[in-house]
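re: ur question from yesterday

yeah so i grabbed the chain u mentioned. its 279 aa long if i counted rite. heres the sequnce exactly as i have it in my notes:
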Amino acid sequence: DGSAQPGTAPDGSAQQSGIVTGESEQPGTADAANAAAAGSTRLNTFRAPQQPDLDDAKAPLDVNWAELKQVNPDIVGWLYLEGEPSISYPICLAEDNDYYLHRTFERKDLFAGAIFEDYHNAGDFSDPNSIVYGHNMKNGSMFGKLKYLTDSYDEHPYFWILTPYANYRYRIYSIMTTSVTSDVYMLYSVHDERYLAWEEALRSQSEVKSDVRLFKEDKTVTLSTCTSDSDYRKVVIGKCVSLQRPVKREIVDPRAALYAESSLPDEEDYVDDDEDLDY
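ran it thru and got these structure tokens back, copy pasting raw so excuse formatting
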């Protein structure tokens, strides 16, 4: 039926470095050499979203993809939330949903893990619904502050995913707490009326009110984290509403340590004491 039911998701810490800088320049033409240098075995051929209401926008960050890919070729994107700027992390993609559960984006063992995309999804975020997981840490790192987006939604209803090929801005249309077996985690292979009905159903269950128009051509990203109840997850769902082609530039900031030992979260910082972590 064009859909599959994967699992449900986790939750973990990182710091920005010279790999990522602040305000970006005006949108420009993507540099093919830069994109090629940032290739990944898990990255599908890029397909620009074709949908109504897709506008240009200026990304809030610049990412040096050539350098970031040297850190880890599994990194397929960078997530940034306008309503919670501390949620600003690389997104990894592995051959399963376990590898980055307790490994950093540098592939180092750490209970907090990394932010990662569901392994069923394409690495270019071209699927109808792409799912991104992160641990709900008590110290607020990783997706620990995802639950606060209900408070900032009216002023900041957007998040970004930056990739080597394009930068995508997403308009949040649903925030909710949902069951681990919820249809939120349904994956679709085609854009059809069933997919549009799925979008509308998720918006109807939202804790925030959104009047964004939904279309069957939408590209949706679902951000998912655990809660104190192992049977439920907190999810934030947005549709792609703007696209910026990145421009190549030299970023000269020296690369700082991506992790400071003093800031690493301990295992007890995890919100759920259950050792059997579901996602």
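noticed a couple things. Helices lie at 32-37, 65-71, 149-152, 193-204. also Confidence is low (pLDDT under 50) at residues 1-17, 23-50, 247-279.
anyway ttyl
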